[in-house]
Amino acid sequence: MSEPGNHDWTPDSWRDFSAAQQPDWPDEKELERSLDQVRKFPPLVFAGEARDLTQALAAVSEGQGFLLQAGDCAESFDAFSADSIRDKLKVILQMAVALTYSTGVPTVKVGRIAGQFTKPRSSPIEERNGVELPSFRGDTVNDFAFDADARRPDPTRLVRAYHQSAATLNLIRAFTKGGFADLAKVHAWNLEFVGRSPAGRRYEALAAEIDRALRFMAACGIDLETESHLRQVDFFTAHEALLLDYEEALTRRDSLSGDWYDCSAHLLWIGERTRMIDGAHIEFLAGVENPIGVKLGPTATPDDAVGICERLNPNRRPGRIVLYSRMGADKIDIALPPLIDAVQRSGHPVVWACDPMHGNTFVHSSGYKTRHFDDVMRELRGFFAACRAVGVWPGGVHVELTGEDVTECLGGAEEVLGDQLEQRYETMCDPRLNAQQALDLAFQVAEMLRD
Ligand code: PEP
Ligand code: CO
Hints:
By secondary structure, the chain is of the alpha/beta class. It has a single domain (about 15-25, about 40-130, about 180-450), classed as Alpha-Beta Barrel (TIM Barrel). About 40% of the residues lie in helices and about 15% in strands. The protein is built from 14 helices and 14 strands. Strands 1-2-5-8-9-10-11-14 form an eight-stranded parallel beta barrel, surrounded by seven helices. Strands 3-4 form a two-stranded antiparallel sheet. A hairpin with a 6-residue loop joins strand 6 and strand 7. The longest helix has 22 residues, at about 80-105. It is globular. The termini are far apart. Bound molecules: phosphoenolpyruvate (PEP) and cobalt (II) ion.
């Protein structure tokens, strides 16, 4: 095993480090055949785009922007459709409008999309009624169905994940650059079932104000048709860089700068289970120039937080690192301030963001894994309080959501009750906010930012 820091980085130097959460591929040759294909495919994103995101995040780290990162817990091969991508995009655009209008700073939009397929698991084995099978690790690895064939890791899935990511990204680029994200269409983003909720009505009122502002600008002689900032948005992609074989296969050297980029997404993040300072995930991501996110749960120490920053960003480039606090509503008040304080003292320029979902998951008596909207909001309030107490800008939120009318998280203005979880519980992994809950969250966060 190598020591972090005293060796030359290469796209495969992570192989000398201990890599947690990797599948047990049954056949190395089969894996190699799939990786060989992925290595020859075109990059999904471009280095210049990743640099644009770094620049936008640098502004966030200085309080001149807010990061909105959102999307599925796990994308799926089965639930892949143009409608579901469009509806997710609608909700994210709505949330961004609510945030930008209230705060007056740009919202940096990053999807958990076009590559968010692989999941870390708390146990490698799942047991049901005495039968033990490998856990589901996401559609890049195996199938959700509980039978031995389905759960066998199958590397041809890597190739399929690449193609679905490419198709998803193609649609996102068309939606965000081809007229759909035009501010003049702000009303059209309100999904029908959202429109009748309190958050949806609040959104309609906001959209009417934006209409008035646009008419005012037109009357002043500004040509709204040619103003690209009103007609297009920048939308970036992100996923957890968990499956290192796949990430390595999409890592390319940028011909302009000579630097390495992981071209599977604009931003890659490291999860709570793989953020070990001497582990393979940190090693791999230390060498690519993309912006990197790191989840920090309640067991993270101030030394962990600062050590991770040192290792991933020794040159202290602003916009390179996003730290996501994911403590749980009951723990954040105690656990987060020492981390912010230590990073602040170290002088590392990071974006502090809050994932208010993953520390608040519990199993309801009906057997469904869920989260309560009130806990999510309570954690967000704790995050804002902690940032303000130490004197750093609360730079963003990172949430799991869908554009559909699912019943996966409890609570919200049109309250989802425990006995309704079974009605539309569609996630393959963690419970997501439905579009009403997500929009409501954005309005409440906008208020916290303004206060
Ligand atoms: C996730 O973001 O889906 C996830 C698994 O998060 P964490 O690593 O924070 O548990
Ligand atoms: Co999740």
